[in-house]
């Protein structure tokens, strides 16, 4: 009986050590992340063109209305290398986007930075979710409508990796000698983030937005 009890205590101690290690790793994974939303307000964000295109519902920014972009302005230090993570949900036939390396402008489609496309079933544009818009496109949607999917954008030096639900879907590395110009010739630089309200017929939800700066 004593032998059984000692063995049980030893096994229990091993389980406790394993759980402690898992907890330590989880805490390590959470280090360096900064939440960009509080789920209740637009604090740290700035809307251009049409405030009516944006609302907050169940902790998410909801884009529905005429063209408008919601820029993150809560940190004056520009983002260069980083991991941006958020949850996104589209309704049927909806278009949106997530910009990086951009900067606030009063109107128009953002001229600076890259757009990471949000489009799972929008009929009028073949570029689907996880496209680096008009730079390296994805033609088959990696997610569906009416449910939140995990969108991760990792930018390191001259490479962007786009993950949907933890799976690498698209990767773009800027060719040497690329220079900014007209049309969609864009270059890696530094800046902030922006979310897109595309048109009155599109409804897109963005929530749980967080970022981790990289060296």
UniProtKB/TrEMBL annotation:
> Matching InterPro entries, A to Z?
AL/BT2_dom
Q: Could you tell me which residue ranges the 3-keto-alpha-glucoside-1,2-lyase/3-keto-2-hydroxy-glucal hydratase domain spans?
A: 32-212
* Signal peptide extent: 1-26
TM regions (residue ranges): none
- Iron keyword on record: no
Keywords carried by this UniProt record = Signal
**UniProt-listed Gene3D superfamilies:** Exo-inulinase, domain 1
**Pfam families referenced in this protein's UniProt entry, alphabetically:** 3keto-disac_hyd
Does the keyword field hold Signal?
Answer: yes
Q: Could you tell me one molecular function GO term of this UniProt entry? A: hydrolase activity
Name recorded for this polypeptide? 3-keto-alpha-glucoside-1,2-lyase/3-keto-2-hydroxy-glucal hydratase domain-containing protein
**What is the scientific name of the source organism?**
Blastopirellula retiformator
């Amino acid at each position: 009986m004593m032998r059984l009890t000692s063995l049980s205590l030893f096994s229990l101690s091993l389980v406790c050590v394993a759980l402690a290690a898992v907890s330590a790793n989880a805490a390590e994974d959470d280090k360096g992340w900064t939440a960009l939303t509080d789920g209740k307000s637009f604090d740290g964000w700035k809307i251009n063109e049409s405030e009516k295109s944006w609302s907050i519902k169940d902790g998410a920014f909801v884009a529905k209305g005429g063209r408008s972009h919601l820029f993150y302005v809560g940190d004056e230090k520009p983002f260069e290398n980083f991991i941006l993570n958020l949850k996104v949900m589209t309704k049927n036939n909806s278009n949106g986007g997530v910009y990086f390396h951009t900067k606030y402008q009063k109107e128009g489609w953002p001229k600076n930075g890259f757009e990471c496309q949000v489009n799972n079933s929008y009929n009028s544009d073949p570029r689907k979710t996880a496209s680096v818009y008009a730079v390296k496109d994805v033609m088959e949607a990696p997610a569906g409508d009416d449910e939140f999917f995990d969108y991760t954008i990792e930018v390191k030096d001259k490479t962007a990796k786009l993950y949907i639900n933890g799976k690498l879907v698209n990767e773009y590395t800027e060719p040497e000698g690329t220079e900014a110009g007209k049309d969609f010739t864009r270059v890696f630089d530094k800046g902030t983030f922006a979310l897109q309200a595309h048109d009155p017929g599109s409804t897109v939800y963005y929530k749980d937005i967080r970022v981790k700066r990289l060296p």
